[in-house]
Amino acid sequence: MARDISGLHHVGHVVEDMTAALARYRELGFTVPAPSYPAMVRREGGVPEAFGAANTHADFPRNFLELATIVREGGRIPADAKVIPLQAPPDVLPRLVERVTATSAGLAAHLARFEGLHILMFSASDIDAAAARLSAAGIGHGGVNTVKRPVETGTGVVAETVRYLEIDDPAEGRVGVVADLDPAIQGTRRSAHPNGAQDLVGAVLCVADGELEDTTARYGRYLDRPARRDGPARVFDLDGAWLTIVPASGLAALLPGERPAALPALVACTVAVRDLGTTGEVLRDNGIATRRTPSGDLFVPAAGALGTAIVFH
Questions:
Q1: How far is 250 from 231, CA to CA, in rounded Å?
Q2: Which residues share a beta bridge with 132?
Q3: Helix (H) or strand (E) segment spanning residue 107
Q4: Is 133 in contact with 224 (CB distance < 8 Å)?
Q5: Spatial CA neighbour of 274 closest among 223, 246, 312, 310
Q6: Residue 159 pLDDT > 80
Q7: 254-291 pLDDT per residue, tens
Q8: Exposed e or buried b for every residue in 137-153, given b needs 16+ CB within 10 A?
């Protein structure tokens, strides 16, 4: 049966310090371009000053891993940051500033809980059908929004039109659905990573034991499919990817040594790589401590990856 949700679009790692996060992700073997910082001229004759929220991506051919942070007064900005003045007609600019400010406030609230994964976005082959289905199922959302975002390709930076919706107020963070990446851009995305990363294929949501079944049922409505049992966990199989919901009592069995920073929480993401041996060599050379999952995958514990475990599959 065809379903409108196809796979994972991206996860978002919310960090305290973008400079430190860039350094760590590059040590993890990811190619991460300079982050973008929105800016405004705050006084007549002044220069644009960064404000709000900043982000960048470790891109893969069909999805990505986002790094996001808030711009604090007097906080440091990476030396290679792209400061992008907000430009819009006078009647549109206030709404644009309001959107950036709201995004920043949301990220600040996430950081108040913990540094780590707070964004989980699924891909949809038909975003309008997904919106209608969610509404019919009684799942509140903000409707389909359209924005432009820069995408680095092998021939330069292009503007991609992104259509997305966000589900109303899940406790675990920002959860939503994004239209599949533009096929014309998808094949040209710059995505060579020293660690061999090729695809975002998994995310792990940890919940209180007593919330497992209700959370599984809720995601069943989001994704329009049942979960399968895998020991204490529940797994939603997507198109070449999966979402695992695990009770807190079962997390250490899935990811040895891991403990959730809060409940509920997105505690890990999984990246498919070409060769685990090569990935392990890159991590060892950069002094990154790793562990093994029971299935033999390599992972960097949350303590070594700014609050989220990163699994290499």
A1: 9
A2: none
A3: helix 93-113
A4: yes
A5: 312
A6: no
A7: 999 999 999 999 999 999 999 999 999 999 999 999 99
A8: eeeebeebeeeeeebbb
